[in-house]
Write a structure and sequence with these properties.
Layout lengths: L1 H13 L16 E2 H11 L4 H12 L11 E2 L11 H4 L16 H11 L4 H24 L13 H4 L8 H5 L13 H4 L8 H16 L4 H7 L4 E2 L1 H20 L3 H18 L3 E2 L4 E2 L1 E3 L4 E3 L5 H4 L7 H15 L28 H13 L3 H18 L4 E2 L6 E2 L5 H11 L1
Antiparallel strand pairs: 1-2, 3-6, 4-5, 6-7, 8-9
Helix pairs in contact: 1-18, 2-3, 2-5, 2-18, 3-5, 3-6, 5-6, 5-12, 6-12, 12-13, 16-17
Bound molecules: (2R)-2,3-dihydroxypropanoic acid.
(2R)-2,3-dihydroxypropanoic acid binds next to loops.
Length: about 425
């Protein structure tokens, strides 16, 4: 274990750019939102000051309306597409114009617990608290205009599960006419068979151009987007961050933020139930543009466990993981190997991701499903032992896929072993 932790720390140091880390050199040369929040957890075990800085840098680029962008383009790098000129969001330090899974509330509470005795940490938490809350409020205001309790994503990149089978039908409805010619760079750094297809990229870029034409007015984009999906994984993360922020706000004597955060989380937990599917024994996405559920056996419906579910739902998720383990050598595959669309190596259509494993296991432990959580963590560490610190892994063979020397994978190993 000591060797693995030492290797993981070296990866964090290698990808450290001073006040933020890059997910990996080459493929992702900027700061990514949820990568940073999860990476801070890794830093917190050996450099707590650096851990706080990671999240502070992210929030220094929050938009005035409360949104926290998914990429911050700290310095030019033409090795990535789409770069700042494609987004054209007009921010002082260029950023993208969409967001990502809001895991920062969870991460900041963990950081605070790990540095509670330090008055400086208290001050840092106190400064971040209203900013994170503003982001959560932004979600509920702009991404749940009908007040359902659940928020929608308007671009597959927001989910973090970019090319999941979950988005296939909705993405079909996104046009490709008028998409400016472009050259991908991701396929130079990683095996194209591990990445989304060109067809998917055209639709991703159509959405970016569409939002850019609306001047990145985030209050209008939800209604204007042909792609509007309620993802149980994404909402599970938001629910968890709202409850953790409520606890943190209590500790810091911020009763208003505590009450509002608790109300967001409670409403979310009740509404999550509308996404449950007895047949698959997991949650499903809801396509808000059609009003129908998306019957897709993806890990988004299991990641909802991070919200800390009632016993019976957590038990069903554990059972589902158990059934997946009978067909995949390593859990938790991002898509069911027996379901249509599964692709063992293509990004979010099958591979195992350590951050997802960590979040599912954390939620399951807190719901009393220790044995299942343990098996997920054991598989995660076996993958590292056989495949190194990859971006993701083939669930059938354990082969490393995507980028290497991967920051959040390393951070999760430190977190799991510490
Ligand atoms: C990518 O470029 O693949 C990222 O996931 C988009 O944020």
């Amino acid at each position: 274990h000591d060797t693995l932790i030492a290797e993981a720390r070296a990866i964090l140091r290698r990808n450290d750019r001073g006040a933020y880390t890059v997910p990996t050199h080459g493929l992702y040369p900027f700061q990514w939102n949820w990568d940073s929040a999860l990476t801070a957890l890794g830093f917190s075990h050996f450099d707590i000051d650096r851990a706080w800085t990671e999240i502070e840098t992210l929030f220094a680029h929050q938009w005035p309306d409360g949104m926290v962008p998914h990429i911050i383009f700290h310095q030019p790098d033409d090795g990535y597409f789409p770069g700042p000129e494609v987004w054209d969001t007009g921010r002082p330090v260029p950023t993208s114009g969409i967001t990502q899974p809001p895991v920062a509330g969870f991460a900041v509470r963990r950081l605070f617990e790990r540095s509670r005795s330090d008055p400086a940490a208290r001050e840092r938490a106190r400064r971040l608290l209203p900013r994170i809350h503003a982001w959560h409020e932004w979600f509920h205001r702009t991404r749940d205009p009908q007040g359902t309790g659940l928020v929608a994503i308007i671009h597959p990149w927001e989910s973090g599960r970019d090319n999941s089978v979950d988005w296939d039908a909705a993405l079909e409805r996104v046009p490709t006419e008028g998409v400016a010619a472009f050259r991908r760079r991701d396929t130079i750094h990683a095996d194209p068979a591990h990445r989304p297809t060109d067809e998917q990229y055209r639709r991703y870029i159509w959405l970016v151009q569409h939002f850019r034409n609306l001047n990145w007015d985030t209050a209008r984009l939800h209604e204007a987007s042909p792609f509007r999906i309620v993802d149980p994984g994404f909402n599970g993360i938001l629910i968890r961050s709202c409850s953790d922020l409520a606890e943190l706000a209590d500790e810091l004597g911020q009763s208003e933020i505590a009450a509002q955060s608790r109300a967001f989380a409670e409403r979310g937990r009740v509404a999550l139930e509308t996404l449950w599917d007895d047949d698959l024994g997991q949650y499903l996405c809801l396509d808000r543009a059609t009003g129908g559920h998306v019957k897709s056996a993806s890990v988004g419906g299991l990641l909802a466990a991070f919200a800390i579910l009632p016993r019976r739902r957590a038990g069903a998720i554990a059972e589902r993981v158990h059934r997946l383990a009978a067909r995949a050598r390593f859990v938790v595959p991002s898509h069911d190997p027996d379901a249509p669309g599964f692709d063992a190596r293509r990004y979010w259509r099958g591979p195992v991701w350590l951050i997802v494993n960590y979040m599912i296991a954390d939620g399951l432990v807190r719901s009393g499903e220790d044995a299942c959580a343990r098996s997920i963590l054991d598989d995660s560490l076996s993958l590292i032992a056989t495949g190194g610190f990859a971006e993701y892994y083939d669930p059938m063979t354990g082969a490393p896929c995507g980028g290497g020397h991967f920051t959040w994978t390393a951070a999760m190993v430190i977190e799991m072993l510490s």
